[in-house]
Amino acid sequence: xxxxxxxxxxxxVTVAMPAAAKVTFGVRAGLGRTAFTQKxxxxxxxxxxxxxxxxxxxxxxxxxRFSFRPGITLANQGGEYSTLRDETGLPQLKYKANYYSLQIxxxxxxxxxxxxxxxxxxxxxxxxxxxxxxxxxxxxxEESSPTLEKKMKAFDFSINGGIAxxxxxxxxSIETFHGTSDRRVDIYENESPVYHNSITxxxxxxxx
Length: 208
Known about the structure:
By secondary structure, this protein is mostly beta strands. The chain has two helices and ten strands.
């Protein structure tokens, strides 16, 4: 499904909210692990690095303990993956990427109040757009910097999920993004798809 369709769905859901619904805005900053994952034979290989993100979000109640939580996230992502495997399965080239992307999570949260603490479990789609970055190609005795756009697709459709605990307007969250698109532009034989995923630990604040 295209981004325009998801944005349209988000707008319809927002417009359909009761007029009395209280919209709360918030901000957060996070640090975590970002990686590319491949399945080689029966094993999953993951090349990771440390990434960070900053985000603005909203919490819009719409039915009992449920709320709609759209947001906009600027994320520093990346990782590494190998390619051009020979007949023995050994990698001939390795790519290392460090880039920025714009994520638009469109999640639904289930809120659980517990003695002054508000816990929320949420999940939903999150379109991901590259904003630019760097990539290094490392081979046998050589290293070069190919254009990121020529080696990696500029769009990924991710699934976002997480849990947040709020106390006196301050909240801590743990969330994951799992890409569903093969990120490679060039596809060779004896290779597996490459997917991006991340886990982020964040501290944020709601302007209640």
